[in-house]
Specification:
The chain is of the alpha/beta class and 338 residues long. The chain contains twelve helices and twelve strands. The protein folds into two domains: 2-155 and 323-337, Rossmann fold; 169-320, 3-Layer(aba) Sandwich (Rossmann fold). The longest helix is centred in the first third of the chain and has 18 residues, at 74-91.
Length: 338
């Protein structure tokens, strides 16, 4: 089998809750077709670790590599990355890049991050995106990149629970609490519209920005509950079952796809989000509801809350069947086989 170096590989430690399950599911799914040469070998030196394997690999799969300048030793790692790209072109090692976002969610080292992003669009042999918008976005930056770009929705697991639960919340906002997710703007808009008592809202997740989290807490009330907590799958399944809507308030400027979006669907949540990227793709398929502008958000929320409960949705059933991790692995294998 062809050998793959996968980035990033991180340590899965039960005491560390910040790991991204996407990378583990990705690696597990493609192992049926490729040898992941660095599986189970998390790097303490970031991308510099690749030099140990470079003469033995056929492919490199990059995820979120454009955030490299923000990592420990980011400048050195970034210089190494540019040298690595040149080496791969000379040696024949193929570069597969997953374009998760339009831009980095963090504005730190913006110029370097944009340079990496543009280099990836220019030199990647295969560009994978979980939003159809990713293909057109890449084409705007580099003409002809659409010939190397391939869209497959973010893989999803069907983890719906058929048992009913008492409804505790009208709106659930969950996941990492970060500025790019637009939660503070949502609360400000809610307050300005004098709708702070219109919904029972739970906002829950881990926060790495104490100042931002404290800004959210100013809006906490009997109807707006804000908690900092990590949720395992069982906790998340229960919360989604207790909520009428799972709401996403992401800023449109950077987002293309979202693992939290797919987890919410996989757990049977009724999703409302911005009409951008993967959200727009799923809205066209009748799987979720979206709003084009912030001032339309509440009318969409009210319309969804007014809908009668539907126990089955053929569109969602079909989507969950056709967008599994195994189907994604097969999709990648067929592209590279060509």
């Amino acid at each position: 089998m062809k050998k793959v170096y996968f980035y990033p590989i991180s340590a899965r430690n039960d005491k560390i809750v910040s790991f991204n399950p996407y990378t583990f599911d990705f690696v597990d799914s493609i192992e049926q077709y490729f040898t992941i040469i660095n599986k189970g070998k998390p790097s303490e030196r970031g991308i510099l670790d690749i030099y140990k394997y470079i003469l033995r690999i056929d492919y490199i799969i990059f995820n979120w590599i454009e955030d490299l300048p923000e990592k420990k030793g980011g400048f050195v790692q970034t210089v190494f990355f540019f040298l690595l790209m040149s080496f791969c072109k000379i040696s024949g090692v193929k570069i597969i890049w997953v374009m998760h976002n339009r831009l980095s969610h963090s504005k730190k080292h913006k110029w370097l991050k944009n340079t990496i992003f543009n280099q990836l669009i220019r030199y990647s042999d295969v560009i994978l995106t979980h939003s159809s918008e990713g293909i057109s976005y890449g084409e705007c930056i580099r003409k002809g990149s659409n010939n190397r770009s391939h869209y497959f929705p973010h893989p999803v697991k069907d983890r719906r629970n058929p048992t009913s639960a008492d409804t505790l919340y009208d709106i659930l906002i969950w996941g990492t609490i970060s500025p790019y997710k637009g939660i503070l703007e949502f609360l400000q808009t809610l307050h300005n519209a004098k709708k702070e008592n219109a919904y029972r809202i739970l906002i829950i997740g881990k926060s790495n920005d104490r100042g931002y989290f404290n800004a959210l807490l100013k809006y906490a009330s009997d109807n707006i509950i804000i908690k900092e907590a990590f949720m395992d799958d069982d906790s998340l399944r229960a919360l989604i079952g207790q909520s009428k809507i799972v709401l996403f308030t992401y800023a449109k400027s950077s987002i293309l796809s979202s693992g939290a979006l797919m987890d919410s669907i996989g757990f049977g949540g009724k999703v409302v989000g911005p009409h951008v990227g993967a959200f727009a793709d799923l809205a066209k398929e009748g799987i979720i509801n979206t709003f084009a502008e912030t001032d339309q958000m509440f009318s969409v929320i009210d319309a969804v809350l007014a809908q009668k409960h539907i126990t089955t949705n053929p569109s969602i059933d079909h989507f969950l069947r056709e967008n599994s991790w195994n189907k994604f692995a097969d999709f990648i294998y067929r592209i590279l086989k060509k």
